Amino acid sequence: MNVFVTGGTGYIGSHTCVELLEAGHSVVVADNLVNSSPESLRRVEKLTGKAVPFYNADIRDRDALNRIFDQYSFDCAIHFAGLKAVGESVEQPLRYYRNNLDSTMTLMEVMGDRGVKNILFSSSATVYSQDNTMPLTEESRTGGCTNPYGWTKFMCEEIMRSTAKADGEWSVMLLRYFNPVGAHPSGLMGEDPRGIPNNLMPFITQTAAGRRDHLNVFGNDYPTPDGTGVRDYIHVVDLAKGHVAAMQYMAEHRGTHVFNLGTGTGYSVLDMVHAFEKATGKPLPYKIAPRRPGDVAVVYADPSKSEKLLGWKAELDLEDMCRDSWNWQSHNPNGYGEEEK
Ligand code: NAD
Ligand code: WQD
Q1: Which spans in 191-257 are helix H?
Q2: Counting CB atoms within 10 angstroms of each CB, which of 110, 233, 301, 307 has the fewest?
């Protein structure tokens, strides 16, 4: 299939481009580079030996999208483009709502005009309500989000659902990612966050590399076996492969479909620290700090629907996630080669 990939220079998008190309699909990427570097696509090309057309475009820019759609005949789009920092979304809600909602609506309008009515969306486990029991199934309650970022994912899901309900030609895949970590095993591609990382794994790798003094473990008094928060970490290559499987499913099933992309296993912050120490062979300095506001004790997926219907399941384990994250960080101390951020 010929796939339009928004946000394709970013962390998950670039890894997904590799898997799509390796599965025989072709991709065209558009990204405004607000949180990424086009160098990631050069690495995709190097790894796959295939060309990746790139457009520096904002997905909210209808004219720019029309110019791209004039040049290609797409079968579907994967919509990764979006702002994703939870804390920033609390400080800049309008920027988040404007960016994430407007890009989704503009993209769907342009796609609809062209009769390209197949879309996969980067949703998130953050759409689930906090009062659910674990594991989370696709039927678990959604809403009650604790930050504007989460609401943008919730609202984009609704926008897509309503569009598909009104026009039966649409196929919409709402893919709810759990906690993506890791990097391509080649060490050529990985996560390249700007500024001080909010997420656990990039903070761990930067601490191991000496860019940060120590890791703050946010709370050790949760009702979990070691008191630290438990999450469902999934290797980004497994996640990328989930998109290839979901794309195949979409081609055969119209309507709206929701899938969890997680492993089904929860690990604590200290599990992650110890697994990382094992993978790197050196101690990781950490301190116990107060809980981070908005955090919950335990989140993990029931991925059985994805396994049954998509024929996909995560195959890489915690050791793979830690080894590949460190391989990327240690070979690319400044990410994709920009100045120290
Ligand atoms: P990322 O920031 O690396 O990638 C997102 C890309 O979108 C970036 O390259 C950014 O430059 C681009 N972008 C943002 N707004 C844009 C716009 N208006 N026009 C064009 N490009 C724009 O993040 P990621 O981790 O690869 O996440 C990809 C998607 O998956 C996002 O939608 C994110 O919300 C979602 N998601 C991420 C996680 C996670 O923990 N990484 C978890 C669940 C869902
Ligand atoms: C994981 C665990 C922290 C940093 C976030 C978003 C979610 C989704 C994925 C996009 C928690 C602990 C973290 C640190 C720590 N993104 N931690 N020290 O919070 O599960 O999810 O990213 O959709 O929407 O909310 O991921 O990596 O931030 O935290 O102790 O420096 O690590 O408290 O228990 P989270 P995370």
Answers
A1: 200-208, 236-252
A2: 307
User: Residue 154: phi, psi to the nearest 5?
Assistant: -60, -45
pLDDT, one tens digit per residue, over 120-142 is 999 999 999 999 999 999 999 99
Cβ atoms 254, 248 nearer than 8 A:
no
Q: Identify which of 266, 265, 283, 261 has the alpha carbon closest to the alpha carbon of residue 274.
A: 283
The answer for 4, left when phi > 0, alpha when psi is -120 to 50, beta otherwise, is beta
Q: Can you name the residues that pair with 2 across neighbouring β-strands?
A: 26
Contact criterion met (CB below 8 Å) for 9 and 40: yes
pLDDT at residue 337 in the model: 82
Contact between residue 265 and residue 275 where contact means Cβ atoms under 8 Å apart: no
Nearest CA to ligand 2 atom 19: 295
Whole-number Cα distances in Å, 20 to 26, 215, 270: 7, 35, 34
- Nearest ligand to the CA of 16 is 1
Q: At residue 301, what are phi and psi to the nearest 5 degrees?
A: -90, 155
Cα angle value 155/157/163 (rounded, 5°): 105
Read off the pLDDT of each residue in 57-76 and give the average, rounded to a whole number. Answer: 98
CA–CA separation, 195 and 338 (whole Å): 12
267-268 and 230-231 strand pairing: antiparallel
Q: What is the pLDDT of residues 273-287, one digit of tens each?
A: 999 999 999 899 999
Residue of 84, 97, 238 to mutate, ligand 1, most atoms within 8 A of C-beta: 84
